[in-house]
Amino acid sequence: MGMHCQLTGRKPGFGNQVSHSQRKTRRRWNPNVQRKRYFVPSLNRFVTLTLSAKGIKTVDKMGVEAAVARLRAQGVNL
Question: Which regions of the chain does DSSP assign to beta strands (E)?
């Protein structure tokens, strides 16, 4: 599963792990990405979306129909 949210576009952040002695090594911060299954009445079927925690809250707030419409406008194949 790709570490990015389909709705909000959140991706991993990159930076340095800094130890007590100030040695720096590269690391990444992964977003909290989960696969979530929603029933879309207009399509009369379930769709599986890869969403971050904020993306799940956004779908809860705006509704699954509006979220799917926004993804289709972006060109995402569901």
Answer: 13-18, 24-29, 33-40, 45-52
pLDDT tens string 39-77: 999 999 999 999 999 999 999 999 999 999 999 999 988
- With contact defined as beta carbons under 8 Å apart, do 12 and 30 qualify? yes
Residue 15 tokens, joined:
């930076």
Instruction: Please answer whether residues 46 and 36 qualify as being in contact, where contact means their C-beta atoms are separated by less than 8 angstroms.
Output: no
What residues contact 63, with CB distance under 8 A and at least 6 apart? Answer: none
- Calculate helix-pair angle for 53-62, 64-74, nearest 10 degrees: 120
